[in-house]
Amino acid sequence: MEPDLALLATLGNTSVVGLQWGDEGKGKVVDLLAEQFDFAVRWNGGSNAGHSVTVGSKRYAFHLIPSGILRPQCVSVLANGVVIDPIQLLQEMDQLAQQGIAMGENLRISSAAHVVLPYHKRQDSLSESRLADKKIGTTARGIGPCYADKATRSNAIRMGDLLDEARFKEKLQRIVEEKNHLLAGLYGDVPLEWSPIFEQYRACAQQLRPHVCNTVQLLHEAMAAGKRIMFEGANAILLDLDHGTYPFVTSSNCGTGLSAGTGVPGSAVKSVLGIVKAYNSRVGAGPFPTEQDNATGEKIRQRGREFGTTTGRPRRCGWLDLVALRYSTRVTGATALCVMLLDVLSGFDELKVCTAYRLAGKTTDWFEADASQLASAEPIYETLPGWHEPLDAVHKVADLPANARRYLDKIAAFVGVPVRIVSIGPARHQTLVQ
Ligand code: IMP
Q: Residue 144 belongs to what domain range?
């Protein structure tokens, strides 16, 4: 039986954000909530994001399309703040179609969303190689270079440009010529030819054309008609360009960019669900104070199957950092928490949670997002008793082992926000609501 999330949906338009370094399980929550909403709207990021959703015996993989697409009554929207790799998007659409998911009017793409092109991916990889041990550890999906071009303006191509062949051709020719100077001059790379790119992306444009529209108008008309909207932030707040562990972040405002990325004002959002794993994980480089580069981290990695959906990289794993979580909750304005993967922690005698840092000779319980400062933060832990019972057969939070409930209570009390959803496995029914 699926959990009843109707109560959460009565709160009004809801936003779902990741509170750690990504991979918290937003896809599962968005999939469950989508049943209660008319729209699932993604506002940022691109195919750097990745998650899978399990429904019965089927597993669906997502990078760009909101997992709300699995619910036939829910329209999935890629809003203006998303950067779209048309090749990746069409592959994902094909894959979902093969799995029986129909895609027509229920997928809408903003004409103002920016397009990721092959030179963005080349630039991303070449820049990382050049940085060597200083690299960010990006997903090499071209996200940073695409957002950089968006900010530069003169070198940007939006979905609307892609649909206008003459405009696309003129821009692409000019941009490829400029990019070739950069690729050859800075990285010694071979030049790109514009015409095969033009042919390939022109074909993509034809396939995507029926889905492209003005999504700002779409969303405002939907709100005026009383439709219920769920917003999905890709990546997560600690990877946020402004509020994450800069410079080891992604290039969009993952936890704070809803308004800019959709054209919907923040005041239209009535509830913010913060998604958090019962522990911490991170892919890519950057400080991670509670990382356990040891047998504990390995146990969490294996039990939680912590390998990247997008790149397959093993994720770094560690204890739950409550200092970071309280910061994330404050910055995103999360009104409730969804604690995911609690089942992964079954089988530990003791569990640690970080409640303060030792930083520059002082004890602090404020999260310092600047990477160079955070790198020297030493976590101060509180130890809680663990539990050994498997959680798969639990149906209510009240039936969880006492120490699992104590762990959840500790999180809620420290952060100051209630835990509303607890996930104890990948299946839809393995979700406890309170
Ligand atoms: P980029 O977004 O590919 O530029 O990568 C920048 C940083 O964000 C790297 O550390 C990536 O591993 C990380 N990152 C980007 N998207 C995700 C995500 O969805 N989950 C986890 N990490 C991500």
A: 114-212
Domain membership of residue 1 (yes or no) is: no
- Dig out the tokens for 76 from the structure: 């999935």
pLDDT tens digits, residue range 271-284? 999 999 999 999 98
Backbone angles phi, psi at 370, to 5 degrees: -65, 125
Dihedral sign for Cα atoms in the order 81, 83, 88, 90: positive
Residue of 21, 275, 283, 315 to test ligand 1 pocket, by largest number of atoms within 8 Å of CB: 283
Query: Which atom of ligand 1 is the closest one to the Cα of 286?
Result: 10
The residues that are catalytic are: 23, 51
Q: What is the pLDDT of residues 205-218, one digit of tens each?
A: 999 999 999 999 99
Last residue of a domain, one of 177, 212, 247: 212
314 and 169, same domain (yes or no): no
Which one of 17, 120, 139, 240 would you pick to mutate in the ligand 1 pocket, going by the greatest count of ligand atoms within 8 A of its CB?
139
The CA distances from residue 257 to 80, 248, 336, in Å, are 11, 18, 19
